[in-house]
Amino acid sequence: MCGIFGCLLEDGHAAKVILEGLKKLEYRGYDSVGIATLDARGIHVKKDKGKIAEVEARLSLSSLPGNLGIGHTRWATHGAPSQVNAHPHTDCTGAIAVVHNGVIENFMQLRSELEGRGHKFKSATDTEVIAHLVEEGIARGLPFLKAVIEAVKVIDGSYAIAVISVKEPDTIICARKESPLVIGIGDRTLYCASDIPAILPYTRKVAVIEDGEVVVLSKAGFKILKLDGTPVSRAPFIVQWSAEEAERGGYPHFMLKEIFEQPLAIKNTLRVPKVYLKLSSTILSDSKRLFLVAAGTSYHAGLAASYMLSSLAHISSTPVIASEFISLCNNTIDEETVVLAISQSGETADTLSAVRCAKEQGAKILSITNVVGSSITRLSDIYICTQAGPEVGVAATKTFTTQLTTLALLAIHVSMDRGLLTTSEAQELLDNLHKVPGFVDRTLKETEPLVKKVSDLYCNKNSFYFLGRGISVATALEGALKLKEISYIHAEGYPAGESKHGPIALIEDGFPCVFVAPPDETRANIVGNIMEMMARGAHIIALASEDDKEIEELSTHFLPMPREVYKYFTPIVYITPLQLLAYYSAVTLGYDPDKPRNLAKSVTVL
Ligand code: M6R
Questions:
Q1: Could you tell me the distance, in angstroms and rounded to a whole number, from the CA of residue 513 to the centre of ligand 1?
Q2: Domain-embedded: residue 426
Q3: Could you tell me the mean pLDDT of each successive run of 10 residues in the chain, 606 residues long?
Q4: Is 350 in the pocket of ligand 1 (CB under 6 A)?
Q5: Of 98, 391, 555, 560, which residue is most buried, by most CB within 10 angstroms?
Q6: Are residues 514 and 585 in the same domain?
């Protein structure tokens, strides 16, 4: 996730306006920043690694000349945060500049074709291919607009782009597919941006650009077209939100916004280049000992992954809470050990210390993180980045489901590489995984009103149990963690089979027990566990397949889940109503879910 901003002023200083716009977008990424403006002398670019304020203080981005320009605040996906990888990117001649938010899946192939035709690349980013593709179009004699359209037609993946060219010095061309893009219409001024809050200080008149559309911003106004050139008529609307509400996309809290961003975050995460999966799969297959090391929510992702790896890839792994890793595993690490570290921030001190300890003893380090350039990525032999975008709420939500998505992809690839799945079996699983964004979307919409009711009824209880079996133990543990950290209600996650060995003693009339009960091989036993709890007066809140009439009848409250989710992907979908349960309980109790007491987004102490 990155932020893009562009403006075309009647006269005046575009760079100053762009800088202010980028500040509003900094929540979308902040590892590097850059601006390109255009005047009679050509394109001027300033960019560097660092936060906007730091780079502005160093380079004075806002002093760039010209009344038209584009800017970018970056959240690295391809290529580490650095001066050359910062946007805008230019073509070979410096006559075209591009900013981009999204992921270009086929960039390696496009880059090698472009290099084969003599183009010189300066960065390691996927974005730079766009500048060179537009350059080729213009060199072939195409008008600027046509050159941009031809370029985006060959791109697979997601993008919101803004492009400028000396060929048409009064024009910005934008295009969108699966990454957000809005335009703002001022008084003889035009803006483009990744979201509305960036534009609000200048105008409340906005038009939202849809997938597959291109926009031309020029002195003549704005024009929206489809990729085949058909004009689109779109009446702008007047934004009624306050600036503060607009930053949260109209949601009352970042946590809720991030919960609802999960379908898109998962979709973007599924775009991981196959080469990373291949390399990671080889490391996992060759390991003699595999530890899955993480803290908090990320540990729950690791726990779920241990079920995926053992069932799908026949690989035994030990999930270890990062702060316990050295005490538990220190004497068992050698060159044949692999540590798969999972951390959204990539900065958690416990996880880093485990990774350093393992690395010193020769272990290979593989990591999954949401932050390129974080400490964990620098210590890793190979890392895969989830594409959740920055998570502002302290509670991990979209970073958890994107970690699970990456781990599921990895388990499928290891299984294929070990010859345990035929191509068609693997394809069937991948097809199901690609449907998960849709399952999550449906689940959130269908369960939200039911969850609100449950939270109203039970948020004054002192205690909750969350129970599951098999891979759903991870979902149960995460559901309990979410509830306790956000609503301060005591909640325990347990393997359901273990509940009769102690926890059941606490059950009394009306005690809320959440059962995570997907239709897998654990279902029959979990029905038995539900009965045991009911017999002692517990109220059963069950998450089970929408067609599971038996569990529905046993439940006090039933949360129907999509029937088609493959059993090892259920944590990605089933956790989402539990995130909502934590959220609505906190809000009903009057707590701020974005900033729970005593917690920090990134825990950098041991
Ligand atoms: O950044 P990390 O994934 O390494 O963070 C680990 C935990 O601190 C984190 O998952 C924490 O448990 C969550 N914020 C809880 O929602």
A1: 25
A2: no
A3: 92 94 84 95 96 94 96 83 95 97 92 97 95 97 97 94 96 93 94 90 92 95 96 88 72 95 94 91 95 98 98 97 96 96 93 95 96 84 90 93 98 96 95 98 98 97 98 98 97 95 93 98 97 96 98 98 98 98 97 87 72
A4: no
A5: 98
A6: yes
